[in-house]
Amino acid sequence: MAEIRIENLRKSFGSFVAVQESSFTVEDGEFLALLGPSGCGKTTTLRMIAGLELPTSGSILLDKEDVTFNRARDRDIAFVFQLFALYPHMNVRKNIGFPLLAQGVAKAEIRARVEETARLLQIDHILDKPVSGLAGGDRQRVALGRAIVRRPKCFLMDEPLGTLDAEFRNVMVHELRELHNRIKATTIYVTHDQLEAMAMADKIAVMNHGVIEQFGSPQQIYDHPASIYVADFIGSPPMNFIGFGGGIAKGATSVQVGDAAVAVPEALEDVSAGDMVLGVRPEHVRFSDAAPLRGSIYGVEYLGTTQIVVVETAYGFCKVRAPADQVFRIGEAVGLDLDATRLSLFRKDTGKAIRTVRAGEMAHG
Ligand code: ATP
Question: Measuring CA to CA, which of 44, 136, 272, 318 is 20 to 30 A from 294?
Fold first, then answer.
């Protein structure tokens, strides 16, 4: 297995910059999700690592060896695409074994490795079936088998579950993570689905217009978003944003939102003036009659185990996750109590988080 490192990787197509100077390291055995909306540069990044696209500048290191200019087939990387192409005239066994046949591996060895791979993917019972009649999930398992059987140093996967329906997708998300736990192959997985990334990855790189906005564990990214963009992209529903003016002084532990003084984590930066944004996740807001931040119930989205209550305030809508059995009336006046230990603060002009320290935590950026 291998460590993948990219350093200042950049790709332009003419005057258009698809990937701006990007750097990160995927440790040996780690699962990284490259996450972002369509067109943000995920596939281009992956294709450069695979050797299918030449970077404009920067380097790619596999186990500390510079492979930036190596051909794809010399990189010992397996690529799994969304539109997985299986050979329709071959059965499952031959499809999985094909890369080994092409490498000239001996027949007995191919047989043993195909069977081992099929057991790993729990498709050993369909080895002699034609691929043409297989369901989507099994076809994807065969495509994965064809990648795994080569025992590559690492896997690059580009939205491999994109064509599956929602039910199969959920099953495959868990299967892929389990498979990763068993074979521990360094993996980079491209997706635009934040739930998929959160469920599977050890680390997530959130991309926006060719830039990696944040790189960290799912929990770091969820709890300490580096920007409004990340905070808005991660979480369902996403973070609430409440604007306020006047900046924030270093050491301040409360801010003035209209008439309400709202307690916040201690600011480690001095932002002397300007518009600011306070971010709070729906599960970190409680209803409290005494809370100075006021609003009225606008609507309720019932989710079964919980409900999302939409509150209209003078500063915009705020979504609150509440117990499913709590009863609300549309138009009812309510107070919102924000959990001061879980809030984020952002500059409105740059959208970047300002550094704060929450009780019992290290400072974060
Ligand atoms: P998607 O999920 O839609 O594939 P993505 O985040 O993977 O999105 P990329 O495919 O990496 O995005 O594309 C990033 C940008 O680069 C897009 O605006 C795309 O149009 C552009 N792009 C990609 N390949 C080329 C190319 N060969 N020539 C010109 N522009 C390209």
Answer: 272
Q: What is the DSSP string of 67-79?
A: -TTS-GGGS-EEE
Residue 306 has pLDDT above 90, yes or no: yes
Cβ contact 200:30 at 8 Å? no
- Residues 220-224 have a mean pLDDT of 95
* C-alpha to C-alpha distance for 320 and 55, rounded to whole angstroms: 45
Q: Which residues line ligand 1 (CB under 6 A)?
A: 13, 18, 36, 38-44, 192
Q: How far is the CA of 39 from the centre of ligand 1 (A)?
A: 5
Query: Is the CATH code 3.40.50.300 the one for domain 4-223?
Result: yes
- Using only C-alpha atoms, what is the Rg of the chain? 24
The predicted-structure confidence for 61-71, as pLDDT tens digits, reads as follows 999 999 999 99
Summarize pLDDT for 248-290 with one digit per residue, the tens.
989 999 998 888 889 999 999 888 788 999 999 999 999 999 8
Beta bridge partners of 248: 271
Domain residues of the chain, as ranges? Answer: 4-223, 228-364
165: which 2 tokens? 């329906």
3-state secondary structure of 323: strand
Q: Which atom of ligand 1 is nearest to the CA of 207?
A: 6
Distance, CA of 66 to CA of 61 (rounded, Å): 4
**In whole angstroms, what is the distance from residue 144 CA to residue 187 CA?**
12
Residue 156 — pLDDT band, cuts 50, 70, 90? Answer: very high
- Residue 12: exposed, middle, or buried by beta-carbon count in 10 A (0-12, 13-18, 19+)? middle
Domain covering 228-364, topology: OB fold (Dihydrolipoamide Acetyltransferase, E2P) (2.40.50)
Q: Residue 279 to residues 126, 127, 223, 224, 243: CA-CA distances in angstroms?
A: 50, 52, 11, 10, 9
Pocket perturbation via mutation, ligand 1, pick of 13, 46, 233 by most ligand atoms within 8 A of CB: 13
